[in-house]
Amino acid sequence: MLLFASACLATRSEFDRLNQCQLDNINALEPDHRVESEAGLTETWNPNNPELKCAGVSLIRRTIDPNGLHLPSFSPSPQLIFIIQGKGVLGLSLPGCPETYEEPRSSQSRQGSRQQQGDSHQKIRRFRKGDIIAIPSGIPYWTYNHGDEPLVAISLLDTSNIANQLDSTPRVFYLGGNPETEFPETQEEQQGRHRQKHSYPVGRRSGHHQQEEESEEQNEGNSVLSGFSSEFLAQTFNTEEDTAKRLRSPRDERSQIVRVEGGLRIINPKGKEEEEEKEQSHSHSHREEEEEEEEDEEKQRSEERKNGLEETICSAKIRENIADAAGADLYNPRAGRIRTANSLTLPVLRYLRLSAEYVRLYRNGIYAPHWNINANSLLYVIRGEGRVRIVNFQGDAVFDNKVRKGQLVVVPQNFVVAEQAGEEEGLEYVVFKTNDRAAVSHVQQVLRATPAEVLANAFGLRQRQVTELKLSGNRGPLSQRENISDLESESKSESEFLILGPSLPRTPISVPSLEPELSPSLSPSSTPESESVSVPGPSRPSVLQESAPPAPTLVYQRRSKPDLLQKQIQSPEPEVSTENDSSSDDCAISDTCDTNPVDLPIALRKDKRSCPSLYRHPISQYVSTKHLSTQYQSFIAAVDSVKIPSSVEEALQNRN
After folding, report:
1. pLDDT tens digit string along 555-577?
2. Which of the residues 64, 427, 440, 466 could staple to 145 if both were Cys, CB 3.0 to 4.6 A apart?
3. Which CATH number applies to 22-97+119-189+215-270?
4. Superfamily covering domain 322-442
């Protein structure tokens, strides 16, 4: 009977958890609670929101001022942190790992009486804007802002993760300080249950009341060490009682982010190198170190292995930059770029069962409709504004609104979502996903992978429409919205791509007609008013030239011989007699006769060629001579009658 009851309760609990994702409407969420500290700000979202309950997560946004230190803390839920702005250092306290960063002992103290013990601690990790940082469950960590601008980070707590053996209530445990409650909504619920649980009978109420007063005296602070007495801490850590009292932090009003006066001094090999190279070039050396660090991280990326030898927990890589444009997984120069971090690129995510995606859409950029196959996702807007559309399984748009900086939108598993950037500025956001290998399916890919007959019968399309749907719309997930105002800019952008090829474009050039006056036997309709010649040139063809009507006759040169062509076009027409010299040689102009026809210009509008041996003028290689005027025929005959010397001696003999 008890087994049956427990099974029913488990089934009911599972049903309630799954039923939380039956969302008829999704809202864009903003932080509901804020905690101001000495050197920063902590903002949280209400975990009781239906959207967050569906995803089984909670979120925290922290802003740390320069020289601000976020106190060591840990959570039973694994965390995934994205750095929105700034840079800093982070330290983890991994159990069982040695203190690999050691400071050498000084030989003598300032008084010269005794030696000083050098500091030692575990590895320190640097991070910067665009980094994704993985924090395992139960591992204490701290962060420090050593930059000149505020450090802003958004943290995801996966409260429904298998590593969290407690309930779905978000909890953050601080080792020191007197932090304020970051999720007051859950604390109120717990306090209500605590009062109901401790409603004792009248006879026992006095004894328990005395115990509660003693515990309240001990729990003056909100850190985990505040619950222990000073005497016990002094015995445990073998220290003075005054030190133990400070560990409890009973009246510390600085909260969870404190200011470090004079900056934080830690053992950091990169920091020492920068100090040594300050006199030479501080900025240049720092940039080179960051590039070398990124190259080392790229070399460490490999396929997933499960033998446990490729990476130890003490030296595990916990961060990866996903905002770098050079490493984009999807890229469209007009629409934007996308980069993903999962367990294949960052192996530690396999234990967290989380992943992240960075998306940056340019102006009017569109991320086509898609859905997450095996994960819930949370979209946090970093910068800009745009529109997000989410459709459920019933075809209803559960969300179709504009989003702006600082807002959060939850996209349940298999809900179809599409994003579009605004016209004034782009849209930049990060997506947290509740699966270390979250897979995405795009509607366009599904349509292209489906047979045409299936699409025609499914949507009632014609064959032409199916072809247009599959081929004409053959774009990637990223595209740009086209409107009339952007046509001019797009055409200019397209012309820039045209000149990237090895061949140069041909530009039509209008030249004067070879016939200055009309012959009575030549009708005006058969004579072109002007002829055009196209020669290779470095000029870029404009859209207006391409759309203009073609000239009546266009002559193109196959090979580059501009000198011969210009001489033939620009040669004047002298007045000559009409006498024909019948004694001219059949091949008076040997260069023209021996020239390869491939090297000669060729007319687009041709007629029947009549090239008798009497007329060997070069013009006969271009157009038919039977349509020439009588005067021009006489000119050709006179020119052909001139014998060209074949040698220098022959030319000297016939000087006249």
Report:
1. 444 444 445 445 444 544 444 44
2. 64
3. 2.60.120.10
4. Jelly Rolls (2.60.120.10)
